[in-house]
Design a protein that fits this description.
Blueprint: H1 18-26, E1 38-39, H2 43-48, E2 50-52, H3 58-78, H4 81-86, H5 114-131, H6 133-144, H7 146-167, H8 170-173, H9 176-207, E3 213-217, E4 223-226, H10 228-247, H11 249-260, H12 262-272, H13 275-282, H14 296-311, H15 316-324, H16 350-366, H17 369-380, H18 382-388, E5 390-391, H19 403-425, H20 432-460, E6 481-484, H21 489-501, H22 503-513, H23 519-539, H24 549-576, H25 578-583, H26 595-604
Parallel strand pairs: 1-3, 2-4, 5-6
Antiparallel strand pairs: 3-4
Helix pairs in contact: 3-9, 3-10, 3-11, 3-12, 3-13, 5-9, 5-23, 6-7, 6-9, 6-23, 7-9, 7-12, 9-23, 10-19, 10-22, 11-12, 16-22, 16-23, 17-23, 17-24, 19-21, 20-21, 20-22, 20-24, 22-23
């Protein structure tokens, strides 16, 4: 039968909220009913047996290696931007390095353009890196597929790194404006490459697992449920661990910049990135590769347009009421029409309409994340400046940024092996919505810690201008506050915990709730929230200055806490439907749209 012929609603057509999901589950609510897309698991078994993860296929770990190398090169360069742009060349230096006699207190620098310009350029970098994932997502989902897209943009990243190294050579640094121009060009090129890879590596690693829910008897005799949902959760925990292992590459970068200059510090990550094409080429025959599906975005907008047109009113109140009424998506479903009355503009099937609905519902969750990423952004730049005003004892101030990835690498196995399984054994459903809510709360606590720390830093700094990082003696030597730099560890550790709750879970949520045809696009939309946070941060450039750090941190703390409560209140219904949502749309159907679907429609008629 043609996919466009009027039929009963498919499982994917059951979307993730309201009456449709209840109707979908009404047929499988008895204890002995077999769960859809499982291998013989009943409702009773699902509710009573312990859930465990499946084995993770080894190709998934090679994708993690690719992400590890790419993140090493990213953080091994971007973590240096603050000092590179903000601080001037140290006395007698031509490449940004600090003379051995001054390394106890000195800070590497190059362009000497100040904190405000450093913040603006760093924020632009973050914004651009997280808006460009749509380029890779659209190309992957419609033209090239994820694997080919990653390979193409690997070359783009290499080009950007070469430009970056050129911007920091001693010859170029003699002309600061030229160096700045090359830096901005490098940021642009690398952002296009890194962003386009980002939206595809995340779903590619989960694509390697194709298991279904099933029962299994352990050697102890216990019967358990092998859960794909928990397996994907573990996949993304280890994926995020690879990201943060790569992030620790910034540790060596800080010392390389201080001791050998910025061009050397930028060259080393460029060489490490050579691992990426080697791994991709060597494992090409073993990857589960998802082919492109056609012009998904165009069809998506057309589905939304058909539904909006049917509910539109020039009265805003009436229009809103029409849009929130049940059956909003019916006008776009071929099954709502008799076979010979299907409008010519409808070139898709009911399943695709359900996928569009499901995609939009998944994307709603991410709309809260700009507030979270605003809090996170403080550890990238402003807290590094806070550290510069403290007693360093020979530690480069930008080294403390690595407390975040180090904490994550240590904490992820604890969460994956102890905390999450322990909560499941206790019968506590720590679902994605609850985890994200907890992430917002913990990020707020990190900002409380930062605000209190900044208050004491103002009080104890030898200078009274509320600029501890710029405080110097009469001889021009750094004059730090009597606070050990490692006191700043608190916000970094708290943000690391919040990432495990919120950021990792957002990757998992984007993958599990997005239809197969739109996973890269949904992942790109999740990344877009970081870009929006950067845009908000850019608008706050005037207050992202050291004399106002205390109130900036306090404001973010209050905002994150409030949004945590609003977030859970908004999505509490999705939280209750978590198991049902994970079972929808996991069948084998490919579901093409566009011309092929139109041809099927003609045959059906």
């Amino acid at each position: 039968m043609s996919p466009l012929a009027p039929t009963a609603k498919s499982s994917d057509d059951a979307s993730i909220t309201g009456e449709e999901i209840k109707q979908h589950m009404s047929d499988v609510d008895t204890d002995d009913s077999i769960l859809e897309n499982s291998e013989g698991v009943t409702q009773h078994e699902l509710a009573t047996l312990r859930h465990v993860r499946d084995k993770i296929p080894w190709p998934a770990f090679t994708v993690a290696v690719v992400e590890f190398a790419e993140r090493w090169t990213y953080y091994g360069t971007t973590n240096l931007y603050n000092n590179y742009i903000r601080a001037p060349l140290p006395p007698g230096s031509v490449n940004g390095s600090v003379a051995p006699a001054n390394r106890q207190f000195g800070v590497a620098g190059a362009l000497g353009m100040g904190q405000e310009k450093s913040f603006a350029i760093g924020t632009f970098n973050t914004f651009f890196v997280y808006i460009t994932p749509f380029i890779g997502a659209i190309l992957a989902d419609t033209k090239w597929g994820r694997y080919k897209t990653i390979c193409v943009f690997t070359v783009v990243i290499f080009l950007g790194h070469i430009i970056l190294v050129a911007s920091a050579t001693p010859v170029t640094l003699q002309h600061p404006q030229t160096s700045l121009g090359l830096l901005v060009l490098a940021i642009f090129v690398m952002a296009v490459g890194a962003g386009s890879i980002k939206s595809n590596v995340s779903p590619l690693i989960a694509d390697q697992y194709k298991g279904k829910m099933r029962k299994e008897t352990l050697p102890t005799g216990e019967v358990v449920i092998v859960s794909p949902t928990i397996t994907i959760e573990s996949v993304y925990l280890y994926f995020y661990m690879a990201i943060n292992l790569g992030s620790t590459g910034a540790i060596s970068a800080s010392f390389l910049a201080r001791d050998n200059g910025f061009w050397v510090a930028y060259l080393v990550p460029t060489c490490i990135f050579a691992v990426v094409p080697i791994v991709l080429f060597g494992c090409r025959k073993y990857y589960v590769i998802t082919p492109p599906r056609g012009s998904i975005l165009l069809e998506t907008f057309r589905v939304i347009g058909v539904c909006l047109a049917a509910r539109w009113s020039w009265n805003p109140i009436a229009a809103w009421r029409n849009m929130v009424q049940p059956g909003f998506w019916d006008p776009a479903k071929p099954s709502s029409y008799k076979a010979k009355q299907i409008p010519s503009r409808i070139t898709w099937d009911d399943e695709f309409v359900g996928e569009v609905h499901r995609t939009l519902e998944a994307c709603k969750v991410f709309l809260f994340f700009p507030i979270y990423w605003l809090c996170y952004s403080q550890i990238d730049g402003n807290l590094g400046t806070v550290a510069a005003g403290m007693t360093l004892h020979g530690t480069p101030n930008d080294l403390v940024k690595n407390l975040d990835p180090i904490s994550i690498v240590i904490l992820i196995p604890i969460f994956e092996k102890l905390i999450y399984p322990g909560l499941r054994k206790l019968g506590i459903n720590f679902s994605p919505i609850k985890r994200i809510t907890a992430g917002f709360f913990v990020a707020g606590l990190a900002m409380v810690y930062a605000a209190v720390l900044e208050h004491y830093l103002y009080e104890l700094s030898p200078c009274d201008n509320h600029q501890p990082s710029a405080c110097t003696t009469a001889d021009g030597e750094p004059n730090a506050a009597p606070l050990n730099v490692w006191i700043v560890a608190g916000p970094y550790i708290l943000v690391a915990i919040s990432e495990i709750f919120a950021s990792i879970t957002s990757l998992e949520y984007a993958y599990t709730k997005a239809p197969r045809r739109m996973k890269s696009v949904v992942m790109a939309f999740a990344s877009l929230q970081t870009a929006l946070a950067s845009a908000l941060n850019f608008a706050l450039t005037a207050v992202n200055v050291e004399p106002r750090f205390q109130w900036l941190f306090a404001s973010f703390a209050i905002t994150a806490t409030i949004f945590a409560g609003i977030f859970y209140w908004t999505f509490r219904d999705l939280d209750r439907q978590e198991v049902e949502l994970n079972l929808i749309g996991t069948g084998e159907r490919d579901g093409f749209v566009g011309e092929r679907a139109a041809d099927d429609a003609e045959k059906a008629v």
